[in-house]
Write a structure and sequence with these properties.
CATH topology of the largest domain: FAD/NAD(P)-binding domain
CATH architecture of the largest domain: 3-Layer(bba) Sandwich
CATH superfamily of the largest domain: FAD/NAD(P)-binding domain
Low-confidence stretches: none
Structural class: alpha/beta
Bound molecules: flavin-adenine dinucleotide, nicotinamide-adenine-dinucleotide
Number of domains: 3
């Protein structure tokens, strides 16, 4: 016996929930299937807890840079208690209530595709429930941490983003593998919350390799100043942990091994498509689901399958998953009603510009659009300008020893911005202005008239434009 809905969503993370909301607002019926907690990775084991752990560390840094102010040791128990509140004590009752109020049907269990428009759910008690979609099935199953292949690493039961964001006791000695966003944020959080020896092993020669080079350099300087042992051009070649939960030894290509009490692997993500039944609809299993700009899976007959968020591999960020979800929910409604389905709002075109991203380290690293290197690779005639943020009055007033830099990448043919990067304290809230300038392709001559207030960090806009020659 099958239950029929207009739309079925698998995965109740931020992306899945937003598709559901838009589809129901458009007049369709919908069900959402979730096998862990409604709210997804973002709410419980990613964005929210990581930022709850990072903010006190950032604040302590800010206080330390302000002459005349001092701070006692951070009360780690209080920080962890606030993190627990931020993740609703790992209880999704509020999210489930929200889903039911949409109104939509919440189904707890593991969903998988079982042929065209059919979703088979295995409920927690092992019973099976078949759901059938009239119009669309949306995959919103997210991603899971990829464990790099060093011998012995998997057997050592390393922490991933899950365990580190849910930490109940900060390890004394932590070794981190990876130099991307999770590695940078979590190394700084754990070190700031009391790890006395934090070692970060980076395979390449820089942190945050997809960003402008100065971002990784400034962060490396902050790591050094904080006593974080950053080692580039190296990797874990073998890991030993003879006792479960005991001491970890990480062997490197050269030199003595690193010993630690805990090991965190932060070497990227894998799409959560294992066991999702993709093969039953003719797609390869275990891979990202390729979609067009309307978030419709390519290569599926009759176009009823969609994928939003991390699972499609376009931009692994909550805000981009939610953006895709709005377009996806609305385009499903348009197609179900036979309405025009090619309006600009029904295409996730911003995925292609270079998504805005804030790395919540101290200094914050914020970027949107293309780096200079990416812009040149894409064939633009480019001129880039940089400016030392410490020379801006608003930045100086934030405290002593301000370290920061900004860069704007200009398309010389159209005199519009292709990308902007800020690194420095107080820059996260500057990023949306840059996102508007890049997305709306505001000509530099118009941008000149957007006068930043004095004395704010935003004055960097004026300095960048002056450096460009306006
Ligand atoms: C440590 C960390 C920090 C991060 N910080 C930020 C940040 O500050 N800002 C930002 O924008 N992004 C951040 N991200 C990225 C962000 O978490 C993801 O981009 C976002 O969670 C993706 O949302 P989603 O809805 O696609 O998937 P998810 O949030 O992963 O949700 C997917 C849901 O689907 C469920 N599911 C999976 N398979 C099935 C199945 N077969 N049946 C039923 N349910 C299923 C899962 O249980 C999960 O609840 C961070 C990531 C990490 C790891
Ligand atoms: N503030 C934020 O916006 C935020 C915070 C955390 C995570 N995220 C998102 O979550 C996603 C996952 O983050 P992440 O840091 O795990 O991935 P990432 O892709 O940002 O970084 C992974 C790093 O690991 C390195 N690496 C890969 N394989 C390796 C190996 N075998 N040995 C050593 N190093 C290896 C890569 O070179 C890369 O630098 C990212 O796309 C990120 O944007 C966002």
């Amino acid at each position: 016996m099958s239950e029929v809905f207009d739309v079925i969503v698998i995965g109740a993370g931020p992306a899945g929930e937003n598709v559901l909301d838009r589809a129901v607002r458009g007049g369709l019926t919908a069900a959402i299937v979730e096998d862990r907690l409604a709210g997804g990775e973002c709410s419980y084991w990613a964005c929210i807890p990581s930022k709850a752990l990072l903010r006190p560390v950032e604040l302590a840094g800010e206080v330390a840079r302000m002459p005349g102010m001092s701070l006692g040791p951070i009360d780690v128990d209080a920080v962890l208690a606030r993190r627990d509140e931020a993740v609703s004590h790992y209880d999704d009752a509020g999210q489930v209530r929200w889903i039911e109020g949409v109104p939509a049907t919440f189904v707890r269990g593991r969903g998988r595709l079982d042929g065209a428009k059919r979703v088979l759910v295995t409920e927690p008690d092992g019973s099976q429930r078949l759901l059938t979609a009239r119009h669309a099935v949306v995959l919103a199953t997210g991603s899971t941490a990829a464990i790099s292949p060093a011998p012995g690493l998997r057997e050592a039961a390393p922490w991933t983003s899950h365990e580190v964001t849910a930490v109940t006791s900060v390890p004394g000695r932590l070794v981190v593998i990876g130099g991307g966003v999770v590695a940078c944020e979590m190394a700084q959080a754990m070190h700031g919350l009391g790890a006395r020896q934090t070692t970060v092993l980076v395979r390449g020669d820089t942190l945050l390799p997809r960003m402008e080079p100065f971002a990784g350099e400034l962060l490396a300087g902050a790591f050094a100043a904080a006593g974080i042992d950053l080692r580039t051009g190296t990797e874990a070649v073998r890991v030993e942990r003879p006792e479960p939960g005991g001491k970890v030894t990480v062997h490197l290509p050269d030199g003595p091994p690193v010993e630690a009490d805990e090991i965190l692997v932060a070497t990227g993500r894998r799409p959560a498509t294992e066991g999702l039944g993709l093969e039953s609809v003719g797609l390869p299993g275990g891979e990202s689901v390729e979609v067009d700009d309307s978030l419709r899976a390519t290569g599926v007959a009759e176009g009823w399958l969609y994928a939003v968020g991390d699972v499609n591999g376009r931009n692994l960020l909550t805000h981009m998953g939610k953006y895709q979800a709005r377009a996806c929910g609305d385009v499903i409604v348009a197609r179900a009603k036979g309405a025009p389905d090619d309006l600009p709002a029904l295409r996730a075109t911003a995925d292609g510009y270079g998504a805005p991203q804030v790395v919540f380290t101290d200094p914050q690293i914020c970027a949107v659009g293309r780096t200079e290197e990416a812009a040149r690779r894409d064939g633009f005639r480019v001129r880039a300008v940089e400016y030392d943020l410490a020379s801006v009055s608003g930045a100086y007033l934030l405290g002593d020893g301000y370290q920061g830099r900004a860069k704007a990448v200009v398309d010389e043919d159209r005199r519009v911005l292709l990308g902007v990067t800020f690194a420095g304290q107080g820059t996260a809230e500057l990023l949306h202005a840059a996102t508007i300038a890049v997305t709306a392709e505001v000509p530099l001559e118009r941008l000149w008239h957007a006068v930043p207030s004095f004395p704010t960090v935003s004055e960097i806009w004026l300095r960048l434009l002056e450096t460009y020659g306006l």
